């Protein structure tokens, strides 16, 4: 049907426009009817088709523009169809998971429409009102995931108003709500930074004669290990859900791995210094440990952006910076290739004059030139003058005047592209963050640093006790460990939450019930009067038809004129006879 709809290339703006002459109401009805009794599966099928067209656009470059247009049409159709469906079917449409046959004949992993949109970075779909309603409900904990009889996942409403006791609200499973996970993570990270600041501020001479770890270092490395454990779980999950290894690795993954490596190196040097009996060597290792630990500070502070990324300003800034760094890949590739050639040339010239300098000295000189402070004095005597000087001039010219200008142009293009669509990009990132917290549902969530307790003491028990006993053990341990946060959550949900007050005002109404977009003529049943003397139909009969664009309107008028002309011809023929 998509190929029939778009057999040739069309402008993308004509597809995504609100009054598109291509995605008309009649087209939407046709695609909805194509689902038959499985109309709720049509949005997922369209998103799966979008993925196939995007794959074809990369596989067949000659049809790139056509397939990109078809992929966009699939996404826009999925968005419009979800908008047209009754509100009570939204949970089913978004949460029901389906399998399909892949190109190699294997069955795919079960995926829902919302998850397919997130995996495919479907900005048009995820920025819709319906998708954001689902994501926001999951984020706030108003909707929760529940396993059904088919061992699948459904989104159901969590109605806190039906819990009539305070202790009923003290539910450890509420820690799995993305909003509470995010708040807890922010508190943990702020605490982690405070502990780190105290650890690196401890003077070396304050260590005891045994040169053991102090209390701040114990807490620091405990936090660090819990963070590493949490990031490893996230990375494994991301690799499992991604189509390839490289798609699961981004800028923040590199920052996280670098941070963990430096922390482990600092801990290793510290332990080696404690175990070493040589006092002087022990102090040197302790000094090295603190020096490596001090280098972690910039990486820890920059990771605060990922902790507070769901605030709109921070999230938008992160998206823009990430996109700019991604677009600058071509600059670093060109820079790396050129650098290898110049390094080899300078090393050869350095060996030719029988005065071999350090390899790192050459690297340092090239980096200085790249940063705008070239050291030309070094080449007046060494590196086989004047050849070394000519090579260095050439390097400075290429990097300062050509490559850096290419980098500035790439940054400018990336910024202009992403800033125009920054809000939709933020909503897409917000959706990804929310679903990633609950996609592989864990009935008992132990946030860092308490995941260490789960890893060493709770998880091994699961193999030796029944499922019911394991659940009871988790509930009691979580109530003990998280008594304070669970109490705060219970007070909020039972007394402060807006949904609680709304349910109290309208106890008989289902907030997420049957809500349709049908227009009704409101009447006052008590005294039989109307708000207006004119009916709703009479007031709106002269409204312009904004569902059709200019081209579609012209075509519609031409069809109407053609029909009238045919009637007139038949009338004239009948009169002539």
Automatic annotation (TrEMBL):
Annotated TM spans: 248-269, 289-308, 329-347, 359-379, 391-415, 473-492
Protein name (database record): Uncharacterized protein
InterPro entries, per database record: LHD_YVC1, TRP_calcium_channel, YVC1_C
Keywords tagged on the record: Membrane, Transmembrane, Transmembrane helix
Ranges where the YVC1 N-terminal linker helical domain occurs: 1-170
The Calcium channel YVC1-like C-terminal transmembrane domain, residue ranges: 192-500
Organism listed in the record: Phaffia rhodozyma
């Amino acid at each position: 049907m998509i190929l029939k709809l778009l057999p040739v290339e069309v402008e993308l703006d004509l597809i995504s426009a609100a009054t598109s002459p291509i995605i008309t109401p009649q087209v939407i009805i046709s695609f909805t009817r194509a689902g038959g009794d499985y109309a709720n599966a049509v949005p997922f099928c369209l998103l799966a088709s979008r993925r196939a067209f995007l794959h074809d656009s990369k596989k067949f470059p000659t049809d790139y523009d056509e397939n990109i247009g078809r992929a966009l049409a699939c996404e826009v159709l999925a968005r419009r169809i979800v908008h047209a469906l009754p509100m009570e079917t939204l949970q089913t449409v978004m949460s029901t998971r389906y399998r399909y046959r892949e190109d190699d004949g294997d069955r795919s992993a079960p995926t829902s429409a919302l998850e397919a949109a997130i995996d495919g970075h479907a900005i048009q779909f995820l920025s819709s009102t319906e998708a954001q309603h689902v994501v926001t409900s999951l984020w706030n904990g108003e909707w929760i995931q529940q396993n059904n009889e088919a061992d699948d996942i459904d989104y159901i409403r969590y109605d806190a108003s039906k819990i009539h006791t305070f202790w009923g609200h003290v539910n450890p499973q509420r820690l799995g709500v993305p909003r509470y996970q995010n708040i807890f993570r922010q508190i943990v990270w702020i605490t982690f930074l405070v502990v780190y600041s105290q650890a690196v501020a401890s003077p070396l001479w304050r260590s005891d004669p045994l040169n053991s770890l102090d209390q701040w270092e114990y807490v620091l490395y405990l936090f660090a290990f819990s963070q590493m454990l949490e990031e490893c779980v996230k990375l494994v999950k991301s690799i499992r859900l991604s189509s390839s290894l490289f798609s699961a690795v981004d800028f923040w993954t590199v920052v996280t791995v670098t941070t963990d490596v430096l922390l482990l190196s600092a801990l290793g040097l510290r332990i080696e210094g404690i175990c070493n009996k040589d006092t002087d060597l022990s102090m040197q290792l302790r000094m090295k440990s603190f020096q490596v630990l001090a280098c972690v500070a910039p990486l820890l502070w920059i990771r605060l952006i990922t902790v507070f990324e769901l605030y709109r300003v921070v999230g938008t800034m992160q998206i823009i910076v990430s996109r700019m760094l991604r677009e600058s890949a071509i600059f670093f590739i060109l820079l790396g290739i050129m650098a290898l050639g110049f390094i080899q040339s300078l090393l050869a010239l350095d060996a030719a004059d029988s005065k071999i300098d350090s390899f790192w000295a050459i690297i340092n000189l090239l980096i200085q030139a790249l940063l705008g402070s070239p050291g030309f004095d070094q080449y007046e005597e060494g590196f086989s003058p004047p050849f070394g000087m000519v090579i260095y001039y050439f390097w400075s010219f290429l990097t300062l005047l050509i490559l850096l200008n290419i980098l500035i142009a790439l940054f400018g293009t990336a910024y202009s592209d992403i800033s125009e669509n920054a809000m939709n990009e933020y909503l897409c990132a917000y959706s990804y963050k929310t679903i990633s917290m609950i996609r592989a549902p864990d009935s008992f969530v132990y946030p860092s640093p308490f995941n260490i307790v789960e890893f060493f003491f709770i998880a091994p028990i699961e193999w030796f006790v029944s499922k019911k006993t394991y659940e009871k053990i988790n509930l009691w341990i979580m109530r003990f460990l998280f008594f304070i946060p669970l109490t705060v959550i219970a007070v909020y949900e039972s007394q402060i939450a807006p949904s609680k007050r709304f349910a109290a005002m309208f106890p008989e109404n289902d907030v997420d019930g049957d809500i349709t977009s049908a227009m009704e003529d409101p009447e006052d049943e008590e005294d039989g009067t109307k708000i207006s003397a004119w009916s709703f139909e009479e007031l709106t009969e002269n409204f312009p038809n904004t569902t059709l664009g200019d081209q579609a309107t012209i075509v519609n008028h031409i069809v109407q004129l053609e029909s009238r002309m045919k009637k007139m011809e038949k009338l004239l023929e009948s009169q002539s006879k």
